[in-house]
């Protein structure tokens, strides 16, 4: 059986990387997020002078998945790190990703501060206070994903 969402959506990313891995392989991906991630990939490769791999740890999430994570890691405002209104939620149209980057020459993780510095000109929000990844989103730049809307409206 083939893997759901195993579709190449850009030179460096496959659709399944952005899916809610906890439930039903749901994925919503805004085209601008993908475009900016490719620009980030290029900027990091140029800065390091060799190839990198950007690894998406979180893309789209359903309310159910976000609630489950909130129960485990706690809610922001209650001492935790999960937002009840996370920009990863599908209702925001696929505008957010959590990621880390691997230097393909050394096999080591690129420091999150380095990745965040290259990401800041490309994204509306870049959070780099996590030890293992950064969060990027396009909450001000991205318009609702009309492609997703058109697909859902076409269904009976």
Structural class computed from helices and strand pairing: alpha+beta
Query: What is the count of distinct domains?
Result: 1
**What overall geometry do the principal axes of the alpha carbons give?**
globular
Strands of the biggest beta sheet: in what spatial order? 3-4-6-5
* Discrete helix count: 4
Describe the structure.
This protein is α+β, with helices and mostly antiparallel strands. It has one domain: Muramoyl-pentapeptide Carboxypeptidase, domain 2. It is built from four helices and six strands, in the order E-E-H-E-H-E-H-E-E-H. The strands form two sheets. Strands 3-4-6-5 form a four-stranded antiparallel beta sheet. A hairpin with a 6-residue loop joins strand 5 (125-127) and strand 6 (134-137). The chain is globular, with a radius of gyration of 16 Å. It starts with 7 loop residues before the first strand and ends with a helix. 31% of the residues are buried.
